[in-house]
Design a protein that fits this description.
Mean pLDDT: 82
Number of strands: 4
Strand content: 5-15%
Number of helices: 6
Structural class: alpha+beta
Strand order of the largest sheet: 1-4
Length: 126
């Protein structure tokens, strides 16, 4: 999906923007397909071909994305979504048994949020 084109196409309908990156495991995607689950050994909760990452740690082109948001006329917040199980697991990997545990751990730690902020703050002019 061309996320920057989607911002341009739906600019009048954008009222809130969240920043979340994605890491794509192309080997798993090629084997299982876009709707499939991973056949690879499990490494954490329900590993699929994609993994949510803090901004700057995945495949989103942040300068291009921020440019599209600004040129679309959006002037609101850019909220960092933190669902990065890599940084959440730094704190309490032994306690992760489900995806709900990952989300809970993400909300309790700050490393992923700081990393996302460090990536995005360089691109925002206030």
């Amino acid at each position: 999906m061309d996320y920057c084109q989607a911002i341009k196409d739906y600019a009048s309908k954008v009222f809130h923007v969240h920043a979340k990156d994605m890491e794509i495991d192309r080997k798993v995607l090629a084997r299982s397909g876009i709707l499939g689950r991973s056949f690879a050994p499990k490494k954490g909760p329900d590993r699929r071909w994609w993994r949510a990452r803090a901004p700057g740690w995945g495949e989103v082109d942040w300068p291009k994305f921020i440019s599209a948001v600004i040129t679309s006329g959006y002037r609101g917040n850019l909220d960092i979504e933190h669902e990065d199980d890599v940084f959440a697991s730094m704190q309490t990997i032994h306690s992760i048994r489900s995806e709900a545990d990952v989300v809970s751990n993400c909300s309790q730690e700050r490393a992923g949020l700081r990393l996302g902020y460090n990536t995005l703050s360089k691109l925002i002019v206030t």
